[in-house]
Each structure stands twice: as C-alpha cells, then as structure tokens.
Amino acid sequence: MRYKNPRLSLEQRALGLVLPGYLRLEMIYAGICGTDLHLVKSDAAGLVSTSSPLRIPPEGRIMGHEGVGRVLSTGSESGRFKPGDVVALESIITCQTCEPCRRGQFNQCLDARLIGLESDGLFSTVADVPESVAHNVTAIAQDDRSLKTLACLEPAGVAWLACERSSLSGGDRVMIFGGGPIGFYCAMLARLIFGASWIGLVDPVAFRREHAASWCDNIYDISDERIESAKVDVVIEASGFLDNLQRIITGVKPNGRIVILGRSGQPLRLDAVDHIITNGITIIGVRGHLGGAFGRMIALCQAGRLPLSDSITTVIESLDSLKGHLTHQEHLISHNCKVLVKLTK
Fold first, then answer.
1. Which tens digit of pLDDT belongs to each residue from 25-52?
2. Is 5 contained in some domain?
3. Per-residue confidence (pLDDT) for residue 250, from 0 to 100
4. Cβ-based neighbours of 271, under 8 Å, separated by 6 or more
5. Is the pLDDT of residue 112 over 90?
6. Is residue 307's pLDDT more than 90?
7. Where are the alpha helices (DSSP H) in the chain?
8. How far is the C-alpha of 138 from the C-alpha of 84, rounded, in Å?
9. Rounded distance between C-alpha atoms, residue 48 and residue 42, angstroms
10. What average pLDDT does the segment 297-306 reach?
C-alpha cells in the first residue's frame, strides 16, 4: 500500500498493560535511518517516498527502528529479561513459522513486521517491543560512549550482512556507493573484519566522503571519472541510486559480486550483460541484519574491536528537536553521517 501526504507530529499517548512476550523500555538512544527521512518526504504526487514495506493505522505510526533502551517492566510471558537490563534492538519481527523462517532465513520471513514501519517504533521516551528482538547488553553498557555504540548495532548489522553475503574475503578490492551510516559501516567492517585489501567509497556529499576517509584507500565524488576505471571484486550499492552500477559494472573482475541494499524504488538497468555472463558476476539483493550478526558484533564491541560510535556526528537532545530536523532534512544529509536522538536524561 502507498500512503500520501505524510504529516509529522509530537504526541503524548497513554500506556496500557505490557503485552505477553513484550518488554517496556525507557529508551536511551535511537538512531535516524535514511528510511526515516524518506517516511516524511513525498514525491510530486504526494506519495510517501519510502519503498520499504509500510503499514500506517489511522492513529499514525511511531517511527524509529534503531536503538538501545533500559527495561522498565516485562509482559507475562517474558522470561529472559528483568527491570534494569539494557537491551539493543533488532528491527525485524519474524513469525518463526513460515517456510523461510523454518529454514533459518529470517530476513526473508513472509510475515515479517518492521519496527517503526509496520509496528510502532522507538522515537519515544517509552517503547514496547517484543522480547524476541532484544539483546541483553547490560555487561557492555558501562558509559555513554558504549550506549551510543550499542544504538548503532542495527545499521551496522545491515552492513555486516552485506559484507557477508558478498563473500568478501582477504585480499578483495571493494567499491562502496553511499557514504551514509551503512556505507560507512561497510567500509569499517571490510577493513577490520573481512580483510579487504583496497576500499573505495563514492558519495556526492563532501562531509560524508571525508568522514569515511580513514576507513578507505580512495574516496570519490560522484562525478569522478576514475570510478569507471576501478577494478574490483565486490561492489556494495548502499546509496539507492542504482545507475551507479552502470558505471562500475565493466570494472567488476571475474567471479565478482554486486550487493544491492540501498532502497529507492528505482529500476535497475545494466547494459553490459555480456560482461556479466562472461565473467560469472553475481548480483545479490540483501535485506536485514538477522542470522547472527548482532551476536558477533556485540562480542567484538565488548572486546573493544568495533568502534561503531566513530560514525556518530550529531546527537539530537530531544524529540521536539528531532521533529524539526526531520522536517528540514538538508543539514542532516549534508553535514552528518550517523545521527542519534537522546531520549532519556
């Protein structure tokens, strides 16, 4: 379903009973995703810009799907958590019973609900979430920096899965389109965890290019002609501007892999089909972060080996201020990478 004429408001809502199997959280930090920006924008016809699945009830939808919070209370069937625990949150609620779930392919759950899009989200001082999406990170949540790091796990998990699904391995050369948070994390993970020998990153925003530069060997403005001559094993398209792939496709080496994860609703057009066939190039769609990424990243964060908070460029101090930033998005995009909202004092 497509929705028209999005309206953003700040409201107070009464709290009911905590549902069985749910946790009630005092939210600490929530992250702003590109999807959140698209939710409050519309095209020339008034249609909401996001191409992600979306269900908005008459009373509206609470946005936000990245974050960390503290357990206030638990529902009757919640047994793994207690009040005071700090939890980091996945954003996909799976059914556990459809065929993909039975196969362990949770990111492709046929009855998935996306927090902040198809169920109420995290841009709230108090949020109710299913226990199934929560990870107990109390042992790591020792200071403000660690809490900020934990608020970044969800987008970093998307980047982890993109690197994993691309079969990125030691010595590979990788080109990343998009210098927002997920592209930034792809560069970080490619360097620290997956063993890339060379990393290039393309973004039209100078701030984002420079912010990601420490994780890259080369950074490129979108108009840079050197992009076409790059030779790479892996391409990660995290910007949503799929025409980027036309520019790099003939530079993808034999048995190369192209991962598409940036949503925009744009069509994919590739002219160099003979190059794809001759060189056995694989094009892979990637959605989500489920399947083990969270646990691995939590372990790495606890060991001090994954500095996810390096992506953070701004912390917004209130929901009221968040509303203003979402309404006027230009500065968020042109002068930031990862932006968090502080939801509790």
1. 999 999 999 999 999 988 888 989 888 8
2. no
3. 96
4. 246, 249
5. yes
6. yes
7. 34-39, 99-102, 144-151, 153-165, 181-192, 206-212, 244-248, 273-278, 293-302, 319-327, 330-334
8. 9
9. 4
10. 95
Say yes or no to pLDDT of 162 above 90. Answer: yes
The mean per-residue pLDDT over the stretch 274-293 comes to 96
SS3 state at 83: coil
pLDDT at 52: 87
247, 271: one domain = yes
Q: What is the amino acid identity at position 239?
A: S
* Boundaries of domain holding 266: 157-285
First vs last Cα of the chain: how many Å apart? Answer: 38
For residue 126, the SS3 value is strand
Could you give the CA distance from residue 134 to residue 145 in angstroms, rounded to a whole number? Answer: 20
User: In whole angstroms, how far apart are CA 135 and each of 3, 149, 164, 257?
Assistant: 33, 14, 21, 31
Query: Residue 51 CB: number of other CB atoms within 10 A?
Result: 14
Which pair of tokens denotes residue 289? Answer: 């972060």
Structure tokens at 24: 């009630």
Question: What CATH number is attached to the domain comprising 208?
Answer: 3.40.50.720
| Residue carrying the six token digits 């990788």 | 174
Q: Give a three-class secondary structure readout of 268-334.
A: CCCCCHHHHHHCCCEEEECCCCCCCHHHHHHHHHHCCCCCHHHHEEEEECCHHHHHHHHHCCHHHHH
312, two tokens: 């953070």
Q: Is 9 inside any structural domain?
A: no
- Which structure tokens are listed for 218? 């080369």
The whole-angstrom separation of Cα 340 and Cα 333 is 13
In 223-271, which residue ranges form alpha helices assigned H by DSSP?
A: 244-248
Together in a domain, 280 and 215: yes
DSSP secondary-structure letter at 265? -
